[in-house]
Amino acid sequence: MLADDTYIARRLQLLGEWDAALAVLGPDAEPELRAEIAVDRWFFQIRSHEEAEKAVAALDPASPTAHLLTARLAYSRLLFQRDPRADDRAVAEAGYRAAAESGDEKMRGWAEYHWAVLLDNIDEDPAGALPRYETALEIARKTGDGYFESYIIRHLAPHKEPVERIAMLRRSLHLRAALGARPQVIAAQATLAEYLPEGDPERAELMRTYRPGAEELHIGWLVSES
To answer: pTM for the full model?
Structure first.
């Protein structure tokens, strides 16, 4: 069974209560969990980058988690254009490659997914991204990880034809809702709304629903669009 503090921190993380999740963790908490939550907070709220970087720096630099989180920080600096560094593109790909080659199947799946997003969003190279999305999706479904699947299909959906695209975006939303992952639900609502036609009542309802949640959780890349 998970230690109480770890369990509580994980539940708070799912709710988007990143400050509270970090506060729950004592000095002896797993440094990998602390780093993961700190990076999550930075990515969603686009704040506390220094704390996230410090938490990642406390990890064994040769560990797969350190490789993955270092790459995610580099990617997000590029994505948000928040003090990007000259080597961020190279650092991101190197980190994803190292994590993918770690020997852990689930870690390989997450690394392939994040690598695909890097190719898709930064390089604008869907031909390079799609095989990595598909590899990640195969791993997510093989392991029965609905949370992971929800991430992949949300990013894979825009590359599909409209009917399949909307079905995938709805599935991503439903998977996240079933798990109670509040920030991810809000992101999925926003993405589904983006791809529904103007004037669609579902689109209007999604926008009315996700915007207050995005403001409450201070999701930087949704609040600015609201």
So the answer is: 0.95
